[in-house]
Amino acid sequence: MNDILTRICPEVLVVEDNTGDIRLLQEAFKEGGVKCNLHFARDGEEAMAFLKHDGAYANSPRPAIILLDLNLPRKNGREVLAEIKREQNLKRIPVVILSTSTDMEDINTAYGLHANCYIPKPDDLKTLIGIGKIIESFWLKAAVLSV
Amino acid sequence: VDFFRRLFSSDFVPHGNCFFWRPELVWLHAISDTAIALAYYSIPVTLFFVIWRRAPQRWRGLMAMFGAFALACGTTHLLAVWNIWHSAYRLEGVVKALTAALSIATAILTMKVAPLALSIATPDELARANQKLRDEMEARSEAEQRLRQWAEADRISSEATISSYLEAASQGVIVVGGDGRITLVNRRTEEMFGYSRQELLGQNLEVLVPERYRHMHIRYRQDFFLDPSIRSMGAGRDLSGLRKDGSEFPVEIGLSFIGSGDATIALGLVSDITDRKRAADELERSHAELRSREAELRSYLEGAAQAIVAVSNEGLIVLVNRKTEEMFGYDREELLGQELGTLLPERIREIHQKHRAHFFVEPRVRSMGVGMELAGRRKDGTEFPVEIGLSFVGTEQGGMALGMITDITERKRTMDELARLNERLRRGNMELEQFAYIASHDLQEPLRMVTSYLNLLELRYRNKLDSEAGEFIHYAVDGAERMKGLIRDVLRFSRAGTQAVTLSQVSAERIVEQAIENVQTAIEERGAKVHVGTLPKITADAHMLTHVFQNLIANGIKFTKDATPEIHIAAEKRNGDWIFSVHDNGIGIEERHIPRIFVLFERLNSSEEYGGTGVGLAICKKIVERHEGRIWVESAPGRGSTFYFSIPENALLQSEKSAVLL
Fold this sequence. Notes:
The complex is a heterodimer.
Chain A: E1 11-15, H1 19-32, E2 37-41, H2 44-52, E3 65-68, H3 77-86, E4 95-99, H4 104-112, E5 117-120, H5 125-142
Helix pairs in contact in A: 1-5, 2-3
Chain B: H1 2-5, H2 16-19, H3 23-53, H4 57-85, H5 89-119, H6 123-168, E1 172-177, E2 182-185, H7 187-193, H8 197-200, H9 211-226, E3 231-232, E4 239-242, E5 248-258, E6 265-272, H10 274-303, E7 307-312, E8 317-320, H11 322-328, H12 332-335, H13 346-361, E9 366-367, E10 374-377, E11 383-395, E12 398-407, H14 409-442, H15 444-461, H16 467-498, E13 504-507, H17 508-518, H18 520-526, E14 529-532, E15 537-540, H19 542-558, E16 566-574, E17 577-583, H20 607-610, H21 616-626, E18 631-635, E19 641-648, H22 654-661
């Protein structure tokens, strides 16, 4: 059955270059009991390859949601965001920006490029765990996503 | 010899004997001979008179001879009378011989002068000549008579004319005789010297000469009479006349004379030149003034720090000053009369000529070549940047352009140096901003790692670690958190300095409301009271200004230790500024610390006690300054603090600002 309500374990693409952050996010989701399949892309190009099933990612799943960092090597987060929102097949995938920056310019730019949500990376683990839970409860449970 | 010894002896018979002493015969002879002798004697006497009185020289010899001959004849007859009674026949014979000789000589002489005697006019001819002479004399006498009449009439009328001329003359006329006495003056002389005619006539001329010149004047006067001529007196010297009242006046005198020898009289024509002299003095004074003004101007010109060049409308240099010589390396003589182009680099000569022509058509005082790079050219061919002020001087010879030239090599160098320094500063500032960004932004990432993983350690291993490990983790987390605070403040400070100030019309009351809301937590915690007065509408960046109020309110609360914090916010207008004040009843600040409180990271109290990083007031200061206002504090320990800041009343809105810049 392909019912929209029967998502047992949604696929989540995390675009993040910092291994510390990757691990922290994994641990936070684990501590918060978030149920999902986390996929990691280490830079913008890798992220686009994953989304377009290029090369090694031929069999990559289509993610239910993308968590995108802005500061990325090679192709930065803004470019990735712009490209996703330009692509007919990808633009309906919600993109949640997870960034250290609290700069209004960064925030406005992101929304201008049709980011679905902007969340500053919190400084402490407790908050991060909370954010993980919120993302799950909102984007993966409450919200109905396009397929 | 015997003959002559007996010459006078009467040794013969007297001649009377021949008459026999007959008385009639004796007396006839005696009387007749005596009469003949007397007649003969009268002739030489008469001749003598004629000779000495009238006879022409050439007749004199003949007449003398004739006289001697008559004298001799007379004597012969006289001796004939003598010999009637005596007998000096010898003497008689000698005298007869002498008479004979004289007679012959006279006869010869008479024959020689006969033709001459024939040429003498006859009495008739003489009479006719005489008549003619008389007629001529009469005619002349008549003419003379007429002439005399005419002359008399002429004399009378010319005397009258001369007299009226004299009286009407604008010059004083004085006539002086050889003795220096005045014989004639005219009316003008009376007026001029203040004497009446009667007082002057007969007076010595020197009465009209000032005392100190009299001695000399007498000498000059005497010299004049020795060699009179028509001339002006005392040429080249200042002459003065002396009035009756003792005052003096400048005069000019022309001298003339009439007659000669002792009869010479001198004629002086005197002009009172007081007015002329005053005018001349006036002229001289104004000339002197002009000269001194010119000298003054010249000294300004020469002393000027700028090179000054005057150019005729033909483009020729007519004047330069010393600074010009110095600046361009030419001698003055080399420049005067030269084309102005001499002082210009060749590449701008042509265009300059056009500009110059234009300037003479429409001259006005201005700076030359605004926005253009002007250059001068030295004698050695090197160029240098100049700035030129132009003005126009109208003269009788036509217009003159006056250029004031400043060598701006040094200024240009300074400005270039300044621009370079500015650029360095700008770059330094940019680097600093970048550093602030990196420090505040990128440092947050690793710090977040530290904190987050410490949190994870705590979370996962709380039960597996002893209490000491828990304490260590606590300090590590605390340090990381403080560092996070610092980084956040630096970021805020850096943003306050770099973020664009967006001015708009805002209500200060609304801004303060927002600020209070932002610090609500602190207010509630301490039970603080915030009193807000009437606040104006201002032109400011609302977001930034909210931050200022929020900071000052939070500070007020934070630094009130024991009492309930009370904050008073007010505003007043002063000198075109709105002055806002935020007063608290806190601990106050010692005067010596006041200068430090607005400095970044300066803290007067330990963070243990009051917290904070020492950035808040620095940010406030930055924001106020970016609004072109200033911030200050009045405070004393235990008496609370009042923070003031000013915001210009008429700050330009952002749109207006850009309009102005355009």
